[in-house]
Amino acid sequence: MRDSFESQNDFVYNPNLENVYASLEDSRKKYGKLYKFEIHLHTPASEDYEIEQIKDNNEKKYYYKDRTVEWILEYACSIGMINPEEYRTYLDNYLKGAYGIDYINQLKSKGLYFIDFKEYFTYHMIAYKLYAEEIEGVIIADHNTIAGYKKLKSMINYCYQNAFHHIDKKDIWIILGIEISCSDGNHVVAMFDEKQMKDVEKFIDEYIVSNGDSKLSGSIEHSLSVINKVTEIGGKAYIAHINTAKFKNLTGMYKNQLFNSPNFDLFGVTNSTFQIENVIRSFSPKKQHDFCIFYESDSHGINTIGIKNTWIKMNKINFKNLMKAVFNHSISVYPYEKPKLNPVFIKGVYIPEGHSGFFKNNSGPFYFNFSKDLTCIIGGRGTGKSTILNILDIIFSQESVDKKVLSFVSKHQTIYVTFRINREEYIIRFTAQINSDFEEDSPYFFLDQAFKSKRNIDSEIYLNDHWTNLYQVQTDQEKNHYLFREIKGLADKSSILNKLNKKHYSISKIINLIEKNDFAAFIRNLMFSGQTLDTISEKTNLLMYSNKRDFLQIVGKEIMDIQSIIDTWKTRVNDTLNKFNLENKDILRIKLHNSFNKQEYYLTPIFERLLNNISYSNNNSYRKQFVASTTLKWSNVVEYIEAQVSKMGVLSFLRALYNREHDFLESNFKLLDFVTTTQSTKTIDYNLKDARELKTPGKLFTAIREELANHRMDLAEIISDAYLDSDNFMMEFNVNAKEEVGSPTRVNMKNINELSLGQKVVAILTFIINYGRYTNDQTPLIIDQPEDNLDNQYIYKTLVKSLQKIKNERQVIIVTHNSTLVTNAGAEQVVVLESNDGFNSQLKAQGYSNDKQIMEHIVNYLEGGPEAFSRKMKDYKTILGEKIY
Q1: Residues 485 and 10 sit within 8 Å (Cβ to Cβ)
Q2: Per-residue DSSP letters for 667-727?
Q3: Which residue, 697, 554, 727, is CA-closest to 630?
């Protein structure tokens, strides 16, 4: 179908593209996202609510109950909730008595149950501030009462539909909670599912005394007792603002029971620098990371909302999902500040109907989306999981590993991928350049001009530009449409695609690397992607194509420049490596080390050709064996150069040689010490002077320089190779970086060459995953079956931990058959593929890893099904006991 366009500036309306883009956008709500929470919020239901909260600085506090309506209206104007004209209208109406019993009854008809206008308007201000601060979740916790819960919830719902139209409002979920004053002087915040309201009311009646004086309200139970009783009725409780909690006068026995209770796994803080270990170190082995931490606002006023927040990851806010997030707090709860938004990420894939390719839904197009954090693609064998990664490779790199892979992908005819770069939205359309009248193994399957000239690099195929069309996306708010602007300039298009163009890593390729034993080159390419190689190539090309006279004049300076570039590079590398190694000190270590011993024979091929020419020469071959008519043989020179290079490397040797740093060279090894031919009748007959009688070896060095210059093209290549090997990388891996039964083991770093295949794979994967953050690599990290060839012990302790660290900073997409990766790494999006006949694959489901439906698919596809999983759990329970929840 031909696209139709309606122009608006340089963006146009395209119904076909809009249908694709809108379909992917509408489905994005299914994966996990971060929600901004205001935790421990007070309302006028708390006796000490202030409206405008002041610090404890001896300034007199004014509480809600003491504030007048006039003051409250003026305060609402000062925070921007109402403008001066609205303020005067509200005030005039109030003074005229317009907000009396009839007004309150009108509010009740709207589901707003407030005792008077003052209370109504104060809750109205709270709702305004929550919306203005873009709060999405609230845990309400008034002192010893839940009276404010329904009032705030009803106000939020009303305002979402009827107020603050100048604010881009989001849904705000209110979690039922209460702050309980305990007999040990501490405060406990208890949270409940609203469905438990009757149990909560009964709990309050039994254990909480409410009194007009807040000092006389609370529970006679101590903190641990309250936490346990809340847990018994299905709630969750924690000690609030623990940084100011009163533990000093409690008995050691009580503190031991409290801090080691399985229910004491969550606490709230109002000071971001607080360390729990300082409180519990004498009574519990737990560390800060063992606890879920809520950064509480403990807000008693409008002005303190939105200052101290916690971000919690789930696909939808409700009590059940909140509890799952607390349990998986290391990957779901982020106090103090929101994790950085990935600036570059792939959003979704869309394949229309009517093609002969592998991906087909029963009805409609085949499409799904990726989380900007971690997406796991799962399914049975042969469901096309790895093909999804090949599609991303081909589209963003405009290349294919071979024609077989490209043919398989091209049978889908048209594929769309949406992505974002620095808040700009894009959609790219892949149109296969094929002739569908021919089979895919036919030489005529691909159209003429489909490919650029093929370069001999791993047999890769380079696609011509017309395979893809790239569009920037813009929203037309007035017409409620998406608009599109095509990026036609090749340079602009390449610049955009290069921000996503990093080919995915497959375990098969990593194993191939291991078999080649070429770790140093892999590390170098991953770290700096040849950034400095272009500059070096310019200099070596200059040397390669210069005449001999120019070569002799410039080679010394060019080598010095190359060494300067290397020194700068090494400084930067070492600085980066020091930070990386410190962060990963118990897992991985990368070192720079000189590899001059590998360079000993770099120059010998040049001399070997010289020596061979001498041996096969019929004309005065004996004399040609010697240097500058002396008894120094060229074979002696080869041995001398090998010794010099093994000590200082090719570049330093050539620099010293061509800059005539003879004294420096002699301080390492004396050239004349390598002379093996003594003066004899034959040497005298050939008029060869005894080299050892020379006062200086200057003319010998000149002869060596001249001879090397005769081979300047070879020498330029050697200089380039010497740069690459001037300093090499060595990787060491902690073979004990795995889950162990019993006591923790010591760090045991071993060179990667000494490791087993599985250990080598996990070491390289860990480096791939962890290193990107140190080079600010924002390209999506895409890995095919990272668990292959890995010991299960390493998967959780090393690979999962690495994924947890980076997924909020960089998009990760993995194909996997391992349930540990999906669940413990906390995949925000799980894509489930299914193939019933082996001829086609379809989308079975997509969603957050904690969703019930997705968990069922994880059990089916990754655990062998419910029966196998149940049997496994029963067997494990014999050794894990109560640790299984």
Answers
A1: yes
A2: HH--GGGG--PPP-HHHHHTT-B-GGG-S--HHHHHHHHHHHHTTHHHHHHHHHHHHHHSS
A3: 697
199: three-class secondary structure by DSSP: helix
Contacts of 682 (CB under 8 A, 6+ apart): 622
Q: Out of 12-16, 54-58, 283-287, 448-452, which region has the weakest mean confidence (pLDDT)? A: 54-58
Distances (CA, A) of 496 to 12, 450, 742: 20, 22, 51
Angle at 367 between CA 362 and CA 371, to 5 degrees: 140
Which residue bears the tokens 């990667």?
A: 752
> Is the distance from CB of 399 to CB of 405 less than 8 angstroms?
no
- Three-state SS for 5? coil
Provide the residue count of the chain.
Answer: 885
Looking at the DSSP bridge assignments, the partners of residue 505 are 783
b/e burial code for range 248-285 (CB count within 10 A of at least 16 → b): eebeeeebeebbeeeebebbbbbeeebebeebbeebbe
Q: Quick check: 312 and 272 in contact, CB under 8 A?
A: no
Strand ordering across the sheet containing 505-506: 505-506, 781-784, 812-815, 374-379, 829-834, 842-847
Question: Is 188:239 a contact under the CB 8 Å cutoff?
Answer: yes
C-alpha span between 139 and 191 (Å, rounded): 8
pLDDT in tens, 423-472: 899 999 999 998 888 887 788 889 888 888 654 444 568 899 999 999 99
What are the backbone dihedrals phi and psi of residue 714, each rounded to the nearest 5 degrees, phi first? -65, -40
Asked if 827 contacts 374 with a C-beta cutoff of 8 angstroms, the reply is: yes
Lowest mean pLDDT among 534-538, 769-773, 803-807, 857-861: 534-538
The H helix count followed by the E strand count for the chain is 32, 29
Would you say the C-alpha torsion 378, 347, 461, 438 has a positive or negative sign? Answer: positive
Please, are residues 828 and 848 in contact by the beta-carbon 8 Å criterion? Answer: yes
Consecutive H or E run containing 152: helix 147-162
Residue 793 CA to residue 807 CA, distance in Å, equals 21
Task: Tell me how far apart the alpha carbons of residues 627 and 637 are, in angstroms, rounded to a whole number.
Answer: 9
Which secondary structure element, helix H or strand E, spans residue 269, and what is its range? Answer: strand 266-269
Name the token pair of 372: 């900007």
d(CA 237, CA 190) in angstroms, rounded, equals 4
Amino acid at 26: D
CA distance 273 to 296: 13
Task: Answer yes or no: are the C-beta atoms of 336 and 278 closer than 8 Å.
Answer: no
pLDDT digits (tens, 9 = 90+) for 733-770: 888 876 554 445 688 899 888 888 888 888 888 888 88
Mean of pLDDT values over 409-433: 94
- Residue whose token pair is 């720079």: 592
Are 324 and 314 in contact, with CB atoms under 8 Å apart?
yes
Distance CA 737, CA 329 (A): 22
Phi, psi (deg, nearest 5) at residue 565 = -60, -45
Distance of CA 340 to the CA centre of its chain: 10
What is the distance between the alpha carbons of residues 321 and 851, in angstroms, rounded to a whole number? Answer: 9
Backbone torsions φ then ψ of 257, nearest 5 degrees:
-70, -40
CA 37 to chain centre: 23
pLDDT tens-digit readout, 137-183: 999 999 999 999 999 999 999 999 898 888 887 889 999 999 999 99
CB 474 within 8 A of CB 482: yes
Cross-strand pairs, 461:
400
The answer to whether 115 touches 103, Cβ cutoff 8 Å, is no
Q: DSSP of 428-484, one letter per residue?
A: EEEE--B-TTS-TTSTTSBPTT-BPPPPSSTT-EEB-GGGEEEEEEEEETTTTEEEE
**How far is it, in rounded angstroms, from Cα 73 to Cα 124?**
11
pTM comes to: 0.76
Q: Positive or negative, the Cα torsion across 79, 83, 88, 92?
A: negative
Across the beta sheet with 749-751, what order do the strands follow? Answer: 588-593, 728-734, 749-751
Q: For residues 861 and 145, what is the distance between their CA atoms, to the nearest angstrom?
A: 47
Cα gap 623→685, rounded to integer Å: 10
